[in-house]
Amino acid sequence: MASFGYGWPKILSPKLHKESLSLEDEVFFPFDLVVDEHRNKLALLYEDRVVFWTTGRIRVVTGKLSVSRYKEKGSVRGCCFRYDGSRFAILLERSYLLIYKLEPFHAPPGRSSWFDFVSSSEGNNQEKESQSTIKCVGEYILPTLLIEKDICTSEEECILACKSCPSGVIVVNSSLKLFCISWEGEIFWQTSFWKLFSSDTSIGEIGEAERFVCLDYHSGTDLCGLTLNPPGIALLVKFGDGGRSAPEIDDTFILRENDASYIALEPQQCLAAVGLKSGLVEIYNTNVFLTGQSVCLRSLSLDILYLSVSDTGGVESLQWTSDGNCIAVGYEKAGVVVWSAIGHCLFHSFSSCGHSTEEIRQISTTIEEMHEQLGRMDPSSSISRATEKESFKEGYLFRQIKAVCWGPFGYSLFVLGSIDYTRDQLEGYSRVPFLLFEFSFLKTGFSKGSCQNEATRSFLLGADFFVSEDDAMIHYPHMVSSKKKLMQHVEAPYEYILNNWPLRSISSNDDKSYVAVSGKHGVAIYSARLKRWRLFGDVVEERMINCCSLCWYGRSIIIGNEISIQNRKSYRYELLIFPRDSLYLSAIQAQIPLEGAPLLLDTRRDGYVLVFADDLQLRLYKLESDYSKTPWTYSRLWTFHITVEAPLASPRRITKWRSTGTFVSSVRLYPKLSYGNDVPHQVLLLKSTGSLILLDISNGISVPLLRMVHSFWFHHTDCLPVGTISSPPLAIWAVAEDGIYCMFDSIWTHLDNESLTTTQSPSTIVSNCRFVTHKWFQGDLNVYPLGFIEFGGFLTGICPLQSGFVTVVFDGVHCRLPCFGIQIERQEFVSKLFLCWLGDETLEDMQCLKWMESFSEWKQFENYLERCLYELLIQVESRRNEQSLLSNEETCELEGMELFPLTSSLTSFSMNEEYALDRFMRLLKYFGEYEDVIVGCARKMDHKYWNLLFSYVGEPCLLFENCCLTGRLSTAAAFLKVIQEWWDLQVAVIHAWKLLQCCLKEGRVDIAEQVAVFLDRTVVEGIVSIPEFEIREEEKRLLENGVGSDHRTAYSLNALLLQNLGNCLERMQWRQALDISMSFGISLADYWKGIESRFHYQSLAHLLLSLHESFQWPFPSSDMVHKKWSRIGADILVSNDEQVLAKLYEWKNITFVPCEKFNKSEKCYQMIRQQLQYLTGNAFAARQWELVLCGLTMLLGCEELWILLNLHSDLVSSYIECLEVTHVKGYATLASKWHT
Length: 1236
What we know:
Layout: E1 3-12, E2 32-35, E3 41-45, E4 49-54, E5 61-66, E6 76-81, E7 87-92, E8 96-105, H1 125-132, E9 140-150, E10 159-164, E11 168-173, E12 177-182, E13 187-192, E14 212-218, E15 223-229, E16 233-238, E17 252-256, E18 260-266, E19 271-276, E20 281-285, H2 288-291, E21 296-300, H3 309-312, E22 315-320, E23 326-331, E24 336-340, E25 345-348, H4 357-374, E26 382-383, E27 398-406, E28 412-419, H5 423-426, E29 435-444, E30 459-461, E31 465-468, E32 490-491, H6 494-500, E33 505-508, E34 514-518, E35 524-527, E36 532-534, H7 539-543, E37 547-553, E38 556-565, E39 570-579, E40 590-594, E41 598-603, E42 608-613, E43 617-624, E44 633-641, E45 664-670, E46 682-687, E47 692-696, E48 701-706, E49 709-714, E50 730-736, E51 739-745, H8 762-767, E52 771-778, E53 784-788, E54 794-810, E55 813-828, H9 830-839, H10 845-853, H11 861-887, H12 913-924, H13 930-940, H14 946-953, H15 956-965, H16 969-982, H17 985-1002, H18 1005-1020, H19 1033-1040, H20 1051-1066, H21 1070-1080, H22 1084-1090, H23 1100-1111, H24 1118-1126, H25 1137-1146, ...
Antiparallel strand pairs: 1-29, 2-3, 3-4, 4-5, 6-7, 7-8, 8-9, 10-11, 11-12, 12-13, 14-15, 15-16, 16-17, 18-19, 19-20, 20-21, 22-23, 23-24, 24-25, 26-54, 27-28, 28-29, 29-30, 30-31, 31-32, 33-34, 34-35, 35-36, 37-38, 38-39, 39-40, 41-42, 42-43, 43-44, 45-46, 46-47, 47-48, 49-50, 50-51, 51-52, ...
Main location: membrane
Subcellular location: Membrane
Keywords: Membrane
């Protein structure tokens, strides 16, 4: 139910054909935008003419209407379309009315003068040429003057504002007179502004200053919003009979008495948005004629963007989307912001940060790539790769805003504003030029409201494509980095979009394998596995489908269809069920007639289909589905009429209705899953006013659950072990104005692990259940919640993102355009679920442990436990501090001192924190992550909570010792920082020394290296000394000869490393010895040279096999030996012995850098080979000939072996014997080569 901007704005500039314009030309100075009721025609107002634009797939100027011949009547002050779009009224400044008839017109082969205006962002030339042959009949319009009439009563009067209504045009003049003029020029009524107020009403001083009036009218409610400046009064006026009857005193209600500058009405949710000169936007309830008082529901402030009224100015323009879910706000000085109905900031045109020239270059490249994917490049605006013009005011796209206007279905926003030019270029013009911009938007998948399932919530819908949150999202928060993630989307087929633009509805099945979208006619189905679309096989059949709603049922798609009869003067409705693999009328599985337009659908797996129609009827159908037979049989089980004070106004065709607040946003069958064969009689109903209601059809009882709810969804029982009858009763998520609520169905707690009796049906249970509601997350106005992802336990939402500006050149003038996008924000909720279980004193420990353990396979399980412990500690400590302050209140020496409770804002549901923390500590010991959770939580929280933490788990030194004994050395290393803070650095060094010894003993050289760095730092700083230990004479002699790490300043540390290195070599733990040598910079060659005694091995064969086992090196085959030996040939007689030996000597200095082009297994092989070469090279430098022979044998260095054995002939017999003893075929082949 929200719209999010992406990409950069398009500049819709009126250029003269084959001529260049300067910014001084009058075409750059429009002053207002007006759109018709269906948002198909856009009028751009100038002082002496009006230019008409299309709002469809391609932006084209369809006509021009000049009023220059009425120059003596003044300039254009306002205009409006008739409700059916067939007529257009222009009011000139001196109260002169012109009414034109707008007729569809074919474009001539040679465009006439009014077609010289074209868009600078129509797309690429190829698309223009292809589209020029398929212009529909009504694309261009021909204005024909019907009526011209002078409506002034005095020469001093002038027009201030006008707005169309079903009866005609409502006009306000400078004398503050209101009158309604029919489309035939007849004045229905006329009244004075003062007659709308009683004598005791105070509206302040109006005076004779220049006045500004704003009007907004909606025929569905016959309400007109009006603001008058000065003094800034905002009021609602009720008209009768579609504006034909004059309002009286009782028909007027004042919303605000000062500071108001603009007003916009939203009838579906009974809202009126009032823009203030202070920059705020206040949302009021328009049902004031029943309540008798104006209620400001919320205030939309730019404080969340850290902007003030001095930056943006007052509100200059407002407009709601056609579905009432979003409102666009244009500010006087700079900026456009789009808000959701409940106050989320969905889009803004302010920069979040500045960028250097290099970053701008990378950003512009990224945007070009993104628009190439979308096919929306703007060839008329060249992006500057580098610009020296950096004199822009930081953070603004627009210098001024004149008007904002939504396109059809909320996919585009038109903004009339001035570009942020460089200061040196702007100073050369006498007036600030204004241009028409178009912003592209994506809508959430559930914004249409017809699809009710949870899977569709993760989709975003564009005008001709959709984006899935699970697969890819418009996500480039780090656009300047090399790892950019651009928008990946699925485009609807061109054959479908051509005649059915834009997409209006989207629905996904539960596993997201199939996605259905609908436009003007028909349906298109996308297979995520095959990545292919399926369309109607017959275009005639496709045009017979006017989709009102979409929903999936198993392998079938349910379409709510509207059929027009008698020249579209009446309609009939039906549900059509098609198999997903066959979109033909002959393949229909069921056809269900309906009495009203099906606005909302919901299905259950057991065949129940809930339909809510615009006749306020809820109908439940049961499908007897058999995929082997068609048609399916169905039956209507019950019908329920939702009682309201007046009939509902269909969102698709506005009808008259007197009462407000009767729209229904969502209906769902409850419970979601089926239990037994009982017919469901419970429905969750969300009204557009925000009331969430549980409706029991069987007895007609409705139970209010929450207020100010924007959307809700069921918990996904397929992806989390909660939400069914055999697990905790997590049932519903609800997005409210102040946060996200989780609702538990408490009746299921008593039925856990029990079966339902035959006398107590689930329907009876649910009707008597009591929901327990918890507020788990505070409202974040920058993040719009979507739902939760199917893995990881995260709530997901979208927030607007703007990465920076790019500099473009437009008509020779440098200006800046920002790139817009959205990014995903996630909040985990599993820790909140743990807190609920832990705080439930009626729940047994073992059952709570069982439920918590069901998440143990998740990668984030340890983080969930840490978060849960973190919140419990903060809550318990805050509660104790609060109690301590309250107990000391009487002894406070300062009189009148106020004491404020130190409550935690992490959770908003009540529980016994002490009990929950005690239970958590008991249950935590059952998990293997016990010490990991303790140390992870301790290192992430403030030290003031450590006393409470360690009072439960014991001293950190004891936990450290336990980790060392159980071999959990990485956890023990994490405790060093805690021990240092808990005690002092000397105690931490003692434990670090012990940990270093354990790491070297267990072969964890990676941890030992980090601990050694910690010990070195303490020695260098001279804070503490490393504990002494017994050093053997052999290590002392090595240290005296300079053997050891050059980077280790501690004598004891070097001795310990040399001692462990020697032990590894004696035990033939070659990999561990190499790790110590490479990690700590100890040369193996120097070590071997420094020791007096020579290493004695049991046998050469034993040494060779130990190397194979240690390095996991495969034995060679006979073919490999033949291949290697054949390379020697006769060349061995002329080989340079010195070159070969020098190569062996260089191996001891080899660097371990795997080649990037290799895969994972190849990189592993390469690293082990380099380690063998390193070991062989060091052994060669130290004259460890047995080790050199074994290393060369494993590497199959036949040439090196030949030369080495020729130099040491005494080793030949033992070497050949070694090869034969191994009983390896490859080595036996190598031995035979030496025999021959």
